[in-house]
Amino acid sequence: MFNQKARKRAVAATILVSALALSACSTDSAGASSDSGLTDVTVVLGWYPNAESGGFYAAQQLGYFEEAGLNVTIEPGGPQVSGTQLVASGRADFGVTGSGANEIVQAQDEGIPLQAVNAIIQKSITGMMVHADSGIESFEDTDGMSWVNSAGVLGPEWVKQEYGIDFQQMQYTGSLANFIRDDNLVQQGIAVNEPYVAHKEGNLAVRFLPFADTGFNPYNTVTYVTDDYLEGNRDVVEAFVEASNKGWRDYMGDIEVAQQINDYLMTEVDKELASDLLWFEWDAQRDYVLTAEGEAKVGAMTEERWATLIEQMKKLGVLKSDDLSVADVADFTVTPDIAPLESRPDAPEGSYERIDF
Known about the structure:
alpha/beta
């Protein structure tokens, strides 16, 4: 994911403090009751606070967590924060994936007992970008070019294997500067962020090539817990997921809620958040949230999708175990039947510049 330089400096201290605070928590604190009678729980995000975590903040600010009997602390993620390790060690109760559902599969394969219980983004927002005027229209057209991507990202390896193409790989450092200057580069990105950043920073129009269109389509913004936590605190997990999904429902479909939460994110959570980028993210991500099973049920997951992901990861040779099953990585009994709001309001006029990508 993209890391704005201005935000990185401001948020880095918060990340460090949050990680230290989580590390200081006792592993016995999960599910403890606060003085208010609410159950204290902590969720660590997969990335810095932005529109991709807006639904969790909506559940918090609208009182849904409190109504569910929970006192929820939301901690930021980031490149120096391992949510899977924090959750596995009991220093956080819930985690949210940063790169996608493959994190859960990889964790179980490595002996880290995590279970996915909810998935907000139904169509993967990950992919690669090229200059819009480069003439490149498909992944096949990038054969022999240089791809800028983070180590360990599975999408590029899937494309290489599926399409029989090859390319040089360069490490993504969080900056789009080289990509903006060089139309021979193919740049890693997420659909709800980097296309707009390229427009703002370089006045550059891009074409976005989603990995999902190649068949590699892991869920994003997946909530997970440990196997033991789910077994011993199912009522807490169900309450958290239900309240979260109410927050996501309202954040996606009620413009007044979206304005309230985006204002809160910018004024109380991260004052370095850019208003236009935040609104772009909010608007763009709805194409990926309110699709497939997400059209009828917030947070929906299917066994078929998880089974496909496991088989794809086996095909890529990134799993040690041959007998990893869907039951090992996902529980489908937690997510309640909460439908999205029928309304899909426009972003406020002038909140961001519309772009084609």
